[in-house]
Write a structure and sequence with these properties.
Length: 346
């Protein structure tokens, strides 16, 4: 028997830990494993490679993915789905483990629903916005990177009496902003789900200064739309073009926000965009352990032919959920989490 593994979408710390765990458990059970190069692209173009014990040795702490990734959507390519099905059969694959977020797993769910494709999923994304699981792996590392950056910005903000705006990732949701903002003691946190106005954000900063604090830290999620008391909302993107899954490329809201804050409050303001630093490097111990548990469960799903299922975390337990459920809608930051953040505004 032979299984393929692919990693799709943005890379994420912990991908290699999943690859190692899936491969180890399947080898133990007498299966062979092929790495599919660059996500769904590898099944469209027929680029697969053997994953033996040597390939997975020493990869647990390594960031990125040893088999590469891409944002390829076979449903958007002429003959893409046929190529996936053909190459899957030609390589004598019996199962596929898809490691990805809403887009990659959305393709997996559709292939399973429409073609009975034997696929199981593992929830990956630093954004933590996938339903059906409490946490995706990679999120903890991103939050750690952002918190460390906020800590460093605190000391320089304090020395110069400046407002520091920190722009973090999170395409549709503010999980990274809220968690790192709470952990780093941010004075204002702006996220897409709870659009506080620019005017209110500036009032919080002014209120803080009025009680003797001469510096402020503002964390803004890249997907936050600049929102004004008038009701106007403005999305800031790098380019209007959409990718194969219909997403714009975010980036730049921090810059615009810092200009607004400086103009409206009169306080000197600087911006730091953390960007892909959040996705790079070695996973935290928590992400290594979570990724390993997910990988073992995904292999068990393969061994029991539980197609269309995804490994998920509920509380402290690893459970299975259907790919349909996991990809039906995004998991946004609930109001009670934002309340925790807001308790420390101003
Ligand atoms: O979905 C993960 C993510 O890191 C988002 O937070 C971000 O908007 C996007 O990927 C960036 O993608 P790319 O690597 O294509 O610039």
């Amino acid at each position: 028997m032979r299984a393929g593994i692919l990693t799709g979408g943005g890379d994420c710390p912990g991908l290699n830990a999943v690859i190692r765990a899936v491969t180890r458990r399947l080898h133990t059970n007498g299966w062979n494993v092929s790495g599919v190069r660059a996500g769904w692209r590898g099944l469209v173009d027929n680029r697969l490679e053997e994953l033996g014990p040597r390939e997975i040795s020493g990869i647990l702490p390594r960031g990125g993915t040893i088999i590469g990734t891409s944002r390829t959507n076979p449903f958007k390519l002429d003959g893409g789905v046929d190529a996936v099905l053909r190459n899957f059969a030609d390589n004598s694959l019996d199962a596929l483990v898809a490691i990805g977020g809403e887009d990659t797993l959305g393709v997996a769910a559709r292939l399973h629903a429409e073609h009975g494709f034997p696929v199981v999923g593992v929830p990956k994304t630093i954004d933590n916005d996938l339903s059906g699981t409490d946490y995706t792996f990679g999120f903890d590392t991103a939050v750690w990177v952002c918190t460390e950056a906020i800590d460093r910005l605190h000391t320089t903000a304090e020395s110069h009496n400046r407002v520091m705006v920190v722009e973090v990732m999170g395409r549709h949701t503010g999980w990274i902003a809220v968690m790192s903002g709470i952990a780093g003691g941010a004075d204002v946190i702006l996220i897409p789900e709870h659009p506080v106005t620019v005017e209110d954000a500036c009032s919080e900063i002014t209120r803080r200064h009025a009680r003797g604090k001469d510096f402020s830290i503002v964390v803004v999620s890249e997907g936050y739309e600049l929102t004004y008391a008038s009701g106007e909302q403005r999305q800031v993107t790098q380019e209007a073009a959409l990718d194969a899954f219909g997403h714009v490329r975010f980036g730049g809201v921090g810059d615009e926000l810092s200009r607004e804050i400086e103009e409206r409050t009169g306080y000197e303001t600087r911006v730091t965009v953390l960007g892909h630093v959040q996705r790079g490097g070695s996973p935290t111990p928590r992400d290594r352990v979570l990724a390993t548990r997910y990988g073992l469960r995904a292999a068990d799903l393969v061994l029991s032919s539980s197609w269309g299922q995804m490994a998920a975390l509920r509380g402290d337990a690893i459970v299975d959920v259907s790919l349909q459920e996991a990809t039906a809608e995004l998991k946004t930051v609930p109001p009670d989490w934002y309340d925790v953040a807001q308790a420390f505004f101003g």
